[in-house]
Amino acid sequence: MSDLRTAIERTAIERAAPRRKRWPWVAGAVAVLLVAGGGFALTRGDASTGRAATTGAPVRGGTLQFALIDYQRSPDPHWGTNYAESLIGNNITDKLTWQDPDTGEITPWLAESWEYNEDLTEFTFHLRKDVTFSDGSPFDSQVVKANFDQYVHGDEKLGINPNGAILLPDYIETLTPDRYTAVVRFEKPLASFLQASSFTANAQPGFLSLSTLKLSAQERTDPTKVIGTGPFVYESWQPQVKTVLVKRKGYNWAPPALKHKGEAYLDRIVFNTIPEASVRTGSLTSGAVDATLDVGTTDEKPLADQGFKIIYRGVSGTSIFFNLNSQLFPTDDIAVRRAIQLGWDRETIKKTVLTDSYSVATSVLAPSVPGYVDYSGTVLRYDPEEAGRLLDEAGWKEGPDGVRVKDGRKLVVELLGISNLVANKPAYESIQQDLKKIGIDLRLTVVPIPDYTALLTKAKTDWNIVAANRSRNDPAVLNLQYGPALGNGSFVTEDSPGIDVDEVTRTLEALELTLDPATRKRYAKAAQDLLLDKYALVNPVYNPSQVIAHADYVHGIVFDAQSRNHFVDTWKSNGK
Amino acid sequence: MLRYLALKIGRALFVVWAAFTLTFVLLFVLPADPVDLLFDPAEVNSVPPEVRAQVAASYGFDRPVILQYLTRLGHALTGDFGTSVQSGRPVVATILDVLPSTLLLAAGALALALVIAFVIALAATSARRPWVRDLVEALPSGAVSVPVFLSGILMLQIFSFRLGWFPAFGDEGARSLVLPLITLAIPVSGPIAQLLVRSFATEFRSGYVTTSWAKGATRGGIVVRDVFRNASLPALTIAGITFGNLIAGSVITETVFARQGVGRMTQAAINTLDVPLVQGTVVLVAVGFALINLIVDLIYPLLDPRLRAALATG
To answer: B257 lies in which domain range?
Structure first.
């Protein structure tokens, strides 16, 4: 459920890069032609800035041509480990609730209201009574029950995986006391379920019709059989190439917070899969597409200069983090962990690696997550002197090659990371340079996802740092990621010197025990204090963003709390 | 002759079986696990063990490897390659869906590559000035050296983004096929052209050509009437390599032009360790490869009287 792209296709291009250079003149000629080509593209783009932006009343009709890097493996939105699946799923299905992207507040959607028991093990949702699926069947509590049951447990006979088992741990059942009341029960307190009921990222709980739930995984690859209540319905799906959605007639239940009444403005959306970055931007500048997601960091400024609008939202959940292994030498030494937090210059990364739409991490939580606290002036500052002092104090002496040594062992820190986001490697390399100056030898292994997951199986014994991120716009993401009984990102066990395991467990689990905003905020601060300050288990690096570039005649693309897009309120001023 | 036939068919079957087995072994030797890749990388460590076990069992990944292999082989013999781990669709249907697109691209590119290769060979043979000939003969090496994605993106910049003549992505209609065809044909034409240039030159110096000269034939006449047919034969021998080039080139071409296709699908399947899908496509490609070599082996005796005679006596 994070926003880490598979970027399967991008790596293909990289791997295909030529190794032999037998014909330097060919390379030269090609370079010249490429520059010429780039020049063409620029001229073309300049012309497009002539289009005046029209604002005012939304125009109905038209087709939005949208480009993105990924494609759906299946039209089933419950299924899914990639961005295309969740993005498109959000526009054909609706959720029980809508999380306000600015405040983090959970607001009504298909559920008009809700309450929960004191233990936070039972959540009662009162459903809207006017909602129907695109096949005409009603949306009611039976539908909620059937969806959650299959979402969590899967269905082996139908080939459906337990897609929701991670989002809804310890789910017991859904009761249906009456047609429009659904009671969802859990074994343990799960405060974060309220946010999960609005979840729009990968493997999401969007509601499918009872007829769809009876279909096998194979039958669900026929998009016309995948029926939701959303503002759009499937028209066609061409794997690897495109998905076409058309407006749902009679739709009238957009999240009230969006203030959108009635049907979607657009008649049609075409999601075009374009793996190659230069082809996405070229298609935008030449007018073949109206908007594109997956804008590279180096493309943002040129596109903005040509008059295209750049919109973005930081990925919610955790920042891109360095999880520090608390029981493996040398990161089992808290002085080393603190030195890593203090030892790198945030300004350098900001200037050389990140664009305006990305930001340096100031906590393990992204700023959009309720309960986020800013640590930039304290724990997460650049202070190489202090870092050096801490290492000196802990007995790390400078070695002959500049790398510190203690008891005959070198201060070598092994990092495992994923190469999918363009900024990852340069950011880590910048940190590597800075840490070298204070005598820490940070070694980078930054690889594609399949290699990463393979190497991750030995994370506990082989890697001092695992660098990744996790997307979930709720502070309980910290419990999922670092809770010793759950993700245990920093491998906190009895073998971790100086760490009280029970304290970590208690502090993080507390996030699931209350929905009172003030208390939860306090618990969130306690969790961050513990992870960043008291035990220094995490070194947050930067906050990535979902970036869209669009033509100036496109309006109303919504980023939700999970930074996914909704097109119900989107319109084109040219109406085409 | 019968023995020759049996030998060649047996070899083709062996190649297909070996490809199937080798893929299976390679995919299982790799440290990554297809089940892990069904989950988000950041969540792999927090998947409850029973959930993981349930998913593994539903794909049969929990059974002993040798049993998995035998079952898959047995099913494969009946044409059933199972379902894709990533999509839940049957492998055969998934492949058949994208196969026409790749076939069209590959066939078109092959035709165009042959035209390019023959034009280069004829031009090199007909050229009277040595420097012109040298220049033309250098073209095939150039064609092979230009990476497919570079030439593809270059053509997109000019003909699609600048001039707007062809669509930049997708595969609808004949116009969307033009740029991918050219992109793929260029590197594929290289080896064929090189071989033709050499064999044209050899044939040009052979006895029957001298006879034609003596009879007063023109240079163009000799090239077209005498040399063309005999010199073309060796091109058949690299049909297998050509097929390989087409498949390899289609991966990149399909990616750059955002087309549907076997190449792009295989690459995605490998990156997600979608074992059934990878095996399905590898077998498909191996069958294609073996078939082409088999056909070449069978046609050759028909075209070359010397080989026919040898087979008859042997």
So the answer is: 91-271
Region for A124 from its dihedrals, namely left if φ exceeds 0, alpha if ψ lies in -120 to 50, beta otherwise: beta
The two structure tokens encoding residue B252: 């990149």
Contact call for residues A344 and A435 (beta carbons, < 8 A): yes
Q: Is residue B255 part of a domain?
A: yes
Please tell me the total count of domains within chain B: 1
Distance from CA of B211 to the nearest CA of A (A): 40
How far does Cα A464 stand from its chain's mean position? 24
Answer whether B162 sits within 8 Å of A41, measured CB to CB.
Answer: yes
- State the virtual CA torsion across A24, A28, A33, A37 in degrees, nearest 10: 100
pLDDT at A156 over 50: yes
Parallel, antiparallel, or unpaired for β A291-292 and A545-550? antiparallel
Cβ A42 vs Cβ A281: under 8 Å: no
| Residues A272-312 pLDDT 10s | 999 888 899 999 999 999 999 989 888 999 999 999 999 99
Q: Is the pLDDT confidence value at B43 over 80?
A: no
pLDDT surpassing 90 at residue A81 = no
CA gap B17, B13 in Å, rounded: 6
CB pair distance less than 8 Å for B145 and A23? yes
* Residue B200 reports pLDDT greater than 90: no
Q: Is residue B161 less than 8 Å (CB to CB) from chain A?
A: yes
Cα distance between residue A145 and residue A172, in whole Å:
11
How far off is chain B from A143, nearest CA to CA, in Å? 23
More confident residue, B200 or A215: A215
| A530-565 burial code (b ≥16 CB/10 A, e <16) | bbbebbbbbbbbbbbbbbbbbbbbbbbbbbbbbbbb
Q: Which of B89, B252, B275 to mutate to test the interface with A (most CBs of A within 10 A)?
A: B89
Q: Looking at this protein, which amino acid is placed at residue B286? A: A
Q: Which of A1, A8, A65, A482 is most worth mutating to test chain B (most B CB atoms within 10 A of its CB)?
A: A8
Q: How far is CA A33 from CA A39, B148, B156, B256, in A?
A: 10, 15, 12, 18
Q: What is the pLDDT of residues B124-162, one digit of tens each?
A: 877 778 888 788 888 888 877 888 888 888 889 899 888
Residues of chain B in contact with residue A544, where contact means CB-CB under 8 angstroms, are none
We report the CATH number of the domain holding residue B172 as 1.10.3720.10
What is the rounded CA–CA span in Å between residue B289 and residue A325?
49
The 10s digit of each residue's pLDDT in B265-312 is 888 888 777 888 988 998 888 888 888 888 888 887 777 777 777 777
Cβ atoms of residues A561 and A199 within 8 Å: no
Question: Whole-angstrom Cα distance, residue B219 to residue B139?
Answer: 22
Q: Express each pLDDT in A368-396 by its tens digit.
A: 999 999 999 999 999 999 999 999 999 99
Question: In terms of DSSP H, where are the helices of A320-445?
Answer: 334-342, 346-352, 384-393, 424-437
Residue B209: inside a domain: yes
What is this model's ipTM? 0.84
Q: How far is CA B21 from CA A280, B76, B271, in A?
A: 39, 11, 19
- For residue A156, the distance in angstroms to the closest alpha carbon of chain B comes to 6
Mean per-residue pLDDT, A423-449:
94
**The pair of three-digit structure tokens given for residue B272, joined into one six-digit string:** 């997600």
B147 domain-assigned: yes
Tell me the CA distances in angstroms from A343 to A296, A425, A531, B93, one per residue in order. Answer: 28, 18, 17, 54
Q: Decide: residue A497, CB within 10 A, 0-12 exposed, 13-18 middle, 19+ buried.
A: exposed
Residue B277, in any domain of the structure: no
CA A244 to chain centre: 24
